[in-house]
């Protein structure tokens, strides 16, 4: 079993901004261990001299003219916002302070 | 006096036949669209293939096409061959005026301010859009059981799953709710549901169809493609949606190849078809699947094709590489759902109300279990100290898989394998075992990692359930998979085995639900 602890998963969940209950953390730790064990075999075949592929059909220098295309009005952009005020997105406190 | 075909007969035509009847003025698009809407109303309580039905909009488009046809002249001449033939869109593809949810609570009620490029093309060609089809949340799954809005059932056996992630599109097409649909394929999400529902589905060459407006899961793997009942229909739809799009920087500059021509040529004499050793044997493959596969090989051989075996040793690592690359890209792509600019916002039940805590609560409530699992796995694979060992190694495997394909295509024009190791499984059978679910994709994943085209074509039944065969071709050679698939479809159909016509009558089976 891969050495993924409950504390690791708790940290990952924090990085990923997903609040998790104790039960969820417990379950996820077990599942992640099994999955990582199955996928880590890739290391066996990944020799030093093999180049990495990030894109299957690579293109280079994809440019476009530097002109303004279609733009959205503030109203359109805010139409789906959970909360808005004065033509801006409204969010709760950004800093964890009183 | 002309006789109007009964509406239940109309929906059982192929898209090409529907298009021909529309052009000949034998039927109207309004009647054709209404027939599909009636079918949707009748079977949706059983299947749940649609998340949203846009009847009014579809009928408006249909009436427009009819009006142009009746008026005749240059405008009628200019109509796209598929104009007036209705279509369903996987709800991962954004549409203006209809909700797009990705089958996730986090996007419930969201209205896209723009159309995907493929949707723009469909609107331009005047195909009535029937609605948005169900999927695994954010296309993460192989059974459509991970939809936040309930699973879709397989019309061949409603106790079974229709495959995933595009189970909604596949079930809708198989059950005659729509003759055409769009899907997306990241690791097999068009082809595996095709295999499980007896439908045809293509994953085009990466970049062959614009991804602009497809909600991203894994950007280097995702590809939009057609879902239909026949190979010719798939080619017709593929030609409509394919081609270069400046809005997608990974879009290929080449024009879309002549796919319909390829789908209408059935001669395989002298063609070399490579059986991938790693994907045709071994454990996990059901006997019924192997039997249908071997019968297909026999039929192709009889028609003059040369069957050769090819060795792709790196495929043993494909599943591992995929389940590292896909979640890594997904964890990054899904970071945008934070409850700030759009989508659901959920406040934490207790404690201070900071943006951090609101994001945590929003994503906890908005994402389902499988999405969370993949985000956490991806975050792990990309984290400092593991990046080289996991993500880096997986990218190297990708190179090896491409090399295996390159070598295989030196020996064969197209490659062949079963599309999935099993037929459609029972609902709930694999939901508690993520690894068992992931193994469904074993045969479809290599094509996504290498960016090459693949097609599923129905090849028989095993205990009354469809078995699918997959053809693969080199990048940008999509025409080859259409040619091979059309040939096999013709060879099997010639023996009276048109799979999609053998689907049991859903109306009678739904009585027991």
UniProtKB/TrEMBL annotation, chain A:
One of its GO terms (biological process) is translation. Keywords: ATP-binding, Ligase, Nucleotide-binding, Protein biosynthesis, Transferase. It is an enzyme of class 6 (ligase). Its EC number is 6.3.5.-. Allows the formation of correctly charged Asn-tRNA(Asn) or Gln-tRNA(Gln) through the transamidation of misacylated Asp-tRNA(Asn) or Glu-tRNA(Gln) in organisms which lack either or both of asparaginyl-tRNA or glutaminyl-tRNA synthetases. The reaction takes place in the presence of glutamine and ATP through an activated phospho-Asp-tRNA(Asn) or phospho-Glu-tRNA(Gln). One of its GO terms (molecular function) is glutaminyl-tRNA synthase (glutamine-hydrolyzing) activity. The keyword ATP-binding applies. Heterotrimer of A, B and C subunits. It comes from Nesterenkonia sedimenti. Belongs to the GatC family. The lineage of its organism: Bacteria, Bacillati, Actinomycetota, Actinomycetes, Micrococcales. The keyword Acetylation does not apply. This is Aspartyl/glutamyl-tRNA(Asn/Gln) amidotransferase subunit C. It catalyses: L-glutamyl-tRNA(Gln) + L-glutamine + ATP + H2O = L-glutaminyl-tRNA(Gln) + L-glutamate + ADP + phosphate + H(+); L-aspartyl-tRNA(Asn) + L-glutamine + ATP + H2O = L-asparaginyl-tRNA(Asn) + L-glutamate + ADP + phosphate + 2 H(+).
Automatic annotation (TrEMBL), chain B:
The keyword NADP does not apply. InterPro entries: Amidase (IPR000120), Amidase_CS (IPR020556), Amidase_dom (IPR023631), AS_sf (IPR036928), GatA (IPR004412). Keywords: ATP-binding, Ligase, Nucleotide-binding, Protein biosynthesis, Transferase. Pfam families: Amidase (PF01425). It comes from the Bacteria. It catalyses: L-glutamyl-tRNA(Gln) + L-glutamine + ATP + H2O = L-glutaminyl-tRNA(Gln) + L-glutamate + ADP + phosphate + H(+). One of its GO terms (biological process) is translation. The active site is at residues 90, 165, 189. This is Glutamyl-tRNA(Gln) amidotransferase subunit A. The gene is gatA.
């Amino acid at each position: 079993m891969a050495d993924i602890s409950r504390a690791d998963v708790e940290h990952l969940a924090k990085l990923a901004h997903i609040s998790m209950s104790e039960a969820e953390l417990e379950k996820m730790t077990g599942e992640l261990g099994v999955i990582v064990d199955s996928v880590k075999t890739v290391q066996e075949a990944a020799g030093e001299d093999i180049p990495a592929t990030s894109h299957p059909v690579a293109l280079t220098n994809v440019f476009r003219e530097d002109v303004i295309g279609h733009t959205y009005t503030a109203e359109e952009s805010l139409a789906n916002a959970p909360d808005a005020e004065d033509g801006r997105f409204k969010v709760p406190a950004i800093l964890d302070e009183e | 006096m002309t006789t109007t075909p009964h509406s239940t007969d109309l929906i059982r035509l192929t898209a090409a036949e529907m298009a021909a009847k529309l052009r000949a003025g034998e039927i109207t698009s309004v009647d054709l669209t209404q027939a599909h809407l009636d079918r949707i109303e009748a079977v949706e309580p059983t299947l749940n293939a649609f998340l949203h039905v846009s009847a009014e909009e579809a009928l408006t488009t249909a009436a427009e096409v009819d009006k142009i046809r009746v008026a005749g002249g240059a405008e009628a001449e200019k109509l796209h061959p598929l104009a007036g033939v209705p279509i369903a869109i996987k709800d991962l593809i954004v549409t203006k005026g209809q909700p797009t949810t990705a089958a996730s609570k986090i996007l419930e009620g969201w209205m896209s301010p723009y159309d995907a490029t493929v949707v723009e093309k469909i609107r331009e060609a005047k195909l009535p859009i029937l609605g948005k089809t169900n999927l695994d949340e954010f296309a993460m799954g192989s059974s459509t059981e991970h939809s936040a809005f309930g699973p879709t059932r397989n019309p061949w056996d409603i106790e079974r799953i229709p495959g995933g992630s595009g189970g909604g599109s596949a079930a809708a097409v198989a059950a005659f709710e729509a003759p055409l649909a769009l899907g997306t394929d990241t690791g097999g999400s068009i082809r595996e549901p095709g295999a499980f529902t007896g439908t045809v589905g293509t994953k085009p060459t990466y970049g062959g169809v614009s991804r602009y407006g497809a909600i991203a899961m894994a950007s280097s793997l995702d590809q939009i493609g057609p879902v239909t009942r026949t190979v010719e229909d798939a080619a017709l739809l593929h030609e409509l949606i394919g081609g270069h799009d400046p809005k997608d920087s990974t879009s290929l500059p080449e024009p879309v190849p002549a796919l319909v021509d390829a789908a209408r040529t059935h001669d395989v004499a002298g063609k070399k078809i490579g059986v991938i050793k790693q994907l045709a044997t071994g454990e996990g493959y059901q006997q019924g699947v192997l039997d249908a596969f071997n019968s297909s090989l026999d039929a192709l051989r009889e028609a003059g094709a040369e069957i050769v075996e090819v060795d792709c040793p790196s495929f043993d690592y494909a599943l591992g590489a995929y389940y590292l690359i896909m979640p890594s890209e997904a964890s990054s792509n899904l970071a945008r759902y934070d409850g700030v600019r759009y989508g659901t916002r959920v406040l934490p039940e207790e404690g201070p109300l900071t943006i951090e805590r609101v994001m945590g609560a929003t994503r906890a409530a908005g994402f389902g279990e499988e999405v969370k699992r993949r985000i956490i796995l991806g975050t792990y694979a990309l984290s400092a100290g593991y990046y080289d060992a996991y993500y880096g190694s997986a990218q190297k495997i990708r190179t090896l898989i491409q090399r295996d394909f390159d070598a295989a295509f030196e020996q064969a024009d197209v490659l062949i394998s079963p599309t999935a190791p099993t037929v459609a499984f029972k609902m709930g059978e694999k939901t508690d075992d993520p690894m068992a679910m992931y193994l469904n994709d074993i045969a479809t994943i290599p094509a996504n990692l290498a960016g090459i085209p693949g097609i599923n074509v129905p090849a028989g039944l095993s205990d009354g359930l469809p078995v699918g065969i997959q053809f693969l071709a080199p990048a940008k050679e999509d025409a080859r998979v259409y040619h091979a698939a059309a040939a096999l479809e013709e060879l099997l159909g010639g023996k009276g085995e048109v799979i999609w016509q053998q689907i049991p009558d859903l109306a009678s089976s739904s009585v027991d639900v």
